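lol forgot to send this yesterday, sorry. struct tokens for the thing we talked abt
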């Protein structure tokens, strides 16, 4: 990976992470002001605004950096460091869905 390409990806990840933090914090503040006495409605407003904002950020920065929005993941991928995943990615499943086994883990 060339230096300008890495710089561009890192900039996109940084800006995307900053925008995501602003959206999450701003939607929480807005929800508290819109519905000061209804916690359930606050959660609904916060989650809807966050999901919409995240969707927009992914559309903007996805083609540039993969839209990970994790400040550690892009440099790790650039350095070819294996990052463990909590669950298998869709690309590694070859179109198959993992089956659930009785202990609740994916198998």
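and heres what i got for the seq, position by position
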């Amino acid at each position: 990976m060339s230096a300008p390409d890495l710089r561009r990806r890192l900039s996109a990840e940084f800006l995307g992470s900053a925008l995501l933090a602003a959206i999450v914090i701003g939607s929480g503040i807005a929800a508290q002001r819109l519905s000061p006495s209804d916690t359930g409605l606050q959660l609904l407003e916060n989650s809807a605004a966050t999901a919409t904002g995240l969707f927009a950020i992914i559309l903007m920065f996805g083609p540039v950096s993969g839209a990970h929005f994790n400040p550690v993941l892009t440099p790790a991928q650039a350095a070819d460091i294996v990052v463990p995943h909590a669950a298998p990615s869709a690309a590694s499943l070859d179109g198959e869905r993992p089956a659930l086994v009785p202990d609740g883990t994916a198998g």
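Residues 3-80 form one domain. anyway ping me if u want another try
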